[in-house]
Amino acid sequence: MATRERRFNGGGGGGAAPRRAGPLGSASRRARACAGAADSKRCGAVAGGMRRGAPRGTLRAVLRRHKPQLRLAASGDLLIHLNFLMFLHRLAEEARTNAFENKSKTIKPEHTVAAAKVILKRSRG
């Protein structure tokens, strides 16, 4: 009971509240476990791989709703998702460059809007 009162009422100790590990343990323990792991499925995002796949059902439903006459191959929705991710990556890089040019450490909405104009102009066919 004394520990609970001290933790929630801020009494005693004077230091920061003790940190509790999440469901997967501490970050350093996960990083050490994944450092030598050959199996990237075990490590997920820590090893640099994608944790989840593309939301194929949702993407197909949106495509069907907007373009019912369109016929796609089996992996067409994956290519559309990949194209979207590549566009988002280019947009983020351009927005970061705009923020850096304006001597800002954070990417603000005006940086993103300016980047979108440049990227959309560049991707016109």
From TrEMBL:
<dbReference type="InterPro" id="IPR009072">
    <property type="entry name" value="Histone-fold"/>
</dbReference>
<dbReference type="GO" id="GO:0005654">
    <property type="term" value="C:nucleoplasm"/>
</dbReference>
<protein>
    <submittedName>
        <fullName>Centromere protein W</fullName>
    </submittedName>
</protein>
<feature type="compositionally biased region" description="Low complexity">
    <location>
        <begin position="17"/>
        <end position="31"/>
    </location>
</feature>
<keyword id="KW-0137">Centromere</keyword>
<comment type="similarity">
    <text>Belongs to the CENP-W/WIP1 family.</text>
</comment>
<dbReference type="GO" id="GO:0051382">
    <property type="term" value="P:kinetochore assembly"/>
</dbReference>
<dbReference type="GO" id="GO:0000776">
    <property type="term" value="C:kinetochore"/>
</dbReference>
<feature type="region of interest" description="Disordered">
    <location>
        <begin position="1"/>
        <end position="31"/>
    </location>
</feature>
<dbReference type="InterPro" id="IPR052484">
    <property type="entry name" value="CENP-W/WIP1"/>
</dbReference>
<dbReference type="InterPro" id="IPR028847">
    <property type="entry name" value="CENP-W"/>
</dbReference>
<keyword id="KW-0995">Kinetochore</keyword>
<dbReference type="GO" id="GO:0003677">
    <property type="term" value="F:DNA binding"/>
</dbReference>
<dbReference type="GO" id="GO:0000278">
    <property type="term" value="P:mitotic cell cycle"/>
</dbReference>
<keyword id="KW-0158">Chromosome</keyword>
<dbReference type="GO" id="GO:0046982">
    <property type="term" value="F:protein heterodimerization activity"/>
</dbReference>
<dbReference type="GO" id="GO:0007059">
    <property type="term" value="P:chromosome segregation"/>
</dbReference>
<dbReference type="Pfam" id="PF15510">
    <property type="entry name" value="CENP-W"/>
</dbReference>
<keyword id="KW-0539">Nucleus</keyword>
